[in-house]
Amino acid sequence: MRLIEHFAPLARDYDVLFCDVWGVVHNGVAAFADACTALTRHRETGGTVILITNAPRPDSAVRRILDRLGVPHSAYDAIVSSGDVTRGIVAARLNESVFHLGPQRDLPIFADLDIRFAPLEAADYVVCSGLFDDTKETPESYREMLAAMHARSLFMVCANPDIVVERGETLVYCAGALADAYAALGGNVLYCGKPHAPIYEAAIAKAASLRGGTPPPLARVLAIGDSVRTDLAGAASFGLDCLFVTSGLHAEQYGSRETPDVDALNAVFNAANVAPKAIIRGLTW
């Protein structure tokens, strides 16, 4: 494992980037200018950038959020979200009623689909996109609801496998925390985003459509992310190299954002039985 200061020398080895969004490109409050510049420069040299995110929204809704945060369109070619994967699953179950566990802002997942919503006690399955109020609640707040779901043997679709994300300097819980708690009870969960294969398969298909119809060789695809659990493990299981950004989600676990502790990083990677191609403090060209 090597700590690099600039992305450009490594970028030359890859045609396609699968870049994480939250924690790499923005922090939920504002875009990271250096990261946006690095992605733009990669595209200017002939590369393709696909933002791959566990956001529980379709790509069009993610694009609007990126616009609001100041992420320029020049930084990416396309977006593939766990919300897109979720929509595909929901579209295949239109004969069943669904209970939506999550905030109203995630309702675009269901846009233009002929959905029958139902209360928990009557629904056929659950789509979990997050907590109802992630500013106040924790997974513990859902103990009784998850128990009631398990008592009915309800199938859960997890639209965002992230456990936590940074919102500014605050960590907030995501749908993955509820899905993991439900799975721990013995509940049946399908995870739509990283580190699971369906979102990478969708990203490969998108890359092929942008590059003349031929899927890129996996050896020429680089994943970029800040989470061991989702970005690094997902890339490894799909056969991709990964550039690990240390200033993101769990920076304090391995020193600090500015001066990561390489020994601490190695301990984290060894515990997860994964290793990145390289590490970088923040995505900088």
List the helices and strands and how they pair.
Layout: E1 3-4, H1 8-11, E2 16-19, H2 33-44, E3 48-53, H3 59-69, E4 78-81, H4 82-91, E5 97-101, E6 116-117, E7 125-128, H5 143-151, E8 155-158, E9 164-167, E10 170-173, H6 175-184, E11 188-191, H7 197-210, E12 221-225, H8 228-238, E13 241-245, H9 262-272, E14 278-280
Parallel strand pairs: 1-14, 2-3, 2-12, 3-4, 5-6, 5-7, 7-8, 8-11, 12-13, 13-14
Antiparallel strand pairs: 9-10
Question: What attributes characterize this protein structure?
Answer:
285 residues, alpha/beta, Rossmann fold, 2 domains, 7-stranded parallel beta sheet, 9 helices, 14 strands, 32% helix, globular
Using the alpha-carbon principal axes, give the shape: globular
SSE run: EHEHEHEHEEEHEEEHEHEHEHE
Largest sheet: 7 strands, parallel
Distance between the termini: 19 Å
> Can you list the strand order of the major beta sheet?
1-14-13-12-2-3-4
Radius of gyration: 19 Å
Please state the second-level CATH architecture of the largest domain. Answer: 3-Layer(aba) Sandwich
Percent range for β-strand residues: 15-25%
Poorly predicted parts:
none
> What is the residue-mean pLDDT, rounded to a whole number?
93
Please identify which CATH superfamily of the largest domain we are dealing with. Answer: HAD superfamily/HAD-like
Classify the helix fraction into a percent range: 25-40%
Give the CATH class of the largest domain: Alpha Beta
H/I helix tally: 9
